[in-house]
Amino acid sequence: MVKLAANLSLMFTHLAFLDRINAAADAGFRGVEFMFPYEFSADEIAARAARNGLEIVLFNLPAGDWERGQRGIGALPDQIDECRRGAAWALDYARRLGCRRLHLMAGKAPADPRNRRTLVDNVAFAADLFAPHGIDLLIEPINTRVDIPGYFYSTSEAALSVLSEVGRPNTKLQYDIYHMQVMEGDLARNIERLLPEIGHIQLADNPGRAEPGTGEINYTWLLPHIDALGYSGWIGCEYRPAGDTAAGLGWAEPFLNQTG
Ligand SMILES: O=C(O)C(=O)[C@H](O)CO
Ligand SMILES: [Mg+2]
């Protein structure tokens, strides 16, 4: 079964954040993800999701000063304390929200030995903090060609080498099909090969990062294929709708019906 989650940081953005939860449920989603919940009360988010029968499937650890261009701090030696306080804050939210996956963003930093050591240690710290609560820690290679130039890892191989050095069973790859199309292509074969390492998938079309059907990726074929490979996790719709979010959900109807 293809399980789609609405990404509330990018979808239904004409509504206030909490109201996006209702909109996602009304559109037929059974799961939601978002970047950062921290300016809202965890109890309010949890109550709203519960009332709408929605599972909260993923959000990010605090990622530094986003407004000033930071995109995570996991690999930044000067912000180790902040990263670890953020891991504890994220865990508190995740427990209240019943969320089982948290994404740690590495940030923009060259892949030199000091930054890598910092990242490996921070990922290990957070994974160990989350493990007793049944929570997985995810890292996601992000394309450096269009979206985040200078991001610490932009290929599945680079992210997996970090996870293998960390060596914790509750660390997984967040495979964002959009980023991986930009950096690697050969999506079906790569997803099949990486499946045992993948803890969460996200999607958008390319170019433009809008909904499936607006670009070059054949999601009509790829989503059932991923399902047939045996992937049973969530697929987050992390795209910027080309127009009205609900009006652009035609592509998702067969899959939203499946989760209903
Ligand atoms: O940029 C992305 O693709 C992500 O998934 C980051 O977590 C930002 O939400
Ligand atoms: Mg993503």
Describe this structure in words.
The protein is α/β, with parallel strands linked by helices and 260 residues long. It has one domain: Divalent-metal-dependent TIM barrel enzymes (TIM Barrel). The protein has nine helices and eight strands. An eight-stranded parallel barrel has the order 1-2-3-4-5-6-7-8, surrounded by seven helices. β7, α8 and β8 form a beta-alpha-beta unit. α4 packs across α5. It starts with a strand and ends with a helix. 44% of the residues are buried. Bound molecules: the ligand O=C(O)C(=O)[C@H](O)CO and magnesium ion. The site of the ligand O=C(O)C(=O)[C@H](O)CO has 10 residues, from loops.
Give a quick set of tags describing it.
about 260 residues; alpha/beta; TIM Barrel; eight-stranded parallel β-barrel; 8 strands; binds the ligand O=C(O)C(=O)[C@H](O)CO; binds magnesium ion; isomerase; Sugar_Epim/Isomerase; Xyl_isomerase-like_TIM-brl; EC 5.3.1.35
Q: Regions with pLDDT < 50 over 5+ consecutive residues?
A: none
Question: How many structural domains does the protein architecture include?
Answer: 1
What coarse outline follows from CA principal-axis ratios? globular
- Give the fraction of residues assigned to helices: 25-40%
Work out the radius of gyration: 17 Å
- What structural class do you assign from the helix and strand content? alpha/beta
Give the CATH superfamily. Answer: Divalent-metal-dependent TIM barrel enzymes
- How would a crystallographer describe the biggest sheet? 8 strands, parallel, barrel
Number of strands: 8
